[in-house]
Amino acid sequence: MGVCVEVAREKSNEVRHEDIAAKIELVMNETQQKGKEMRRKAFEAREMIRNAIKDEEGFKGSSVKAMDEFFTAALSMREKTMREQNVAV
């Protein structure tokens, strides 16, 4: 993830293999602070995504809740439409 972000920061649309290799080295290097920070942010993003899609007893992540709400609304609209069509017939 960090490599893609760093490569995307470049001003050019051209991506060279040297640039990719340099960014990978930056992320993998244990001594560089920027690499450590990139790995920390990637870990935080991973945890946020895991929590968003979690569906366990007593806990639903934000993405699961949003999908539940979407399907509930869609079913409600469908039922309303069906009732209106039955009344019109």
Describe this entry's structure for a reader:
The chain has 89 residues and is mainly alpha-helical. It has one domain. It is built from 4 helices and 2 strands; from the N terminus they run αααββα. The protein has helices at 2-8, 17-28, 33-53, 62-88; strands at 55-56, 59-60. Helix 1 crosses helix 2. The chain is elongated and about 70 Å long. The chain starts with a helix and ends with a helix.
Q: Top keywords for this entry?
A:
89 residues, mainly alpha, two-stranded antiparallel sheet, 75% helix
Distance between the termini: 56 Å
Task: Label the overall shape.
Answer: elongated
Question: How many helices?
Answer: 4
Order of helices and strands: HHHEEH
Task: Indicate the percent of residues in helices.
Answer: over 70%
The helix/strand class is: mainly alpha
The number of domains is: 1
Strand content: under 5%
Q: Could you give the order of strands across the largest sheet?
A: 1-2
Q: Give the overall pLDDT as a whole number.
A: 87
Low-confidence stretches: none
In short:
This protein is mainly α and 89 residues long. It has four helices and two strands; from the N terminus they run αααββα. It has one domain (2-88).
Helices and strands in order:
Elements: H1 2-8, H2 17-28, H3 33-53, E1 55-56, E2 59-60, H4 62-88
Antiparallel strand pairs: 1-2
Helix pairs in contact: 1-2
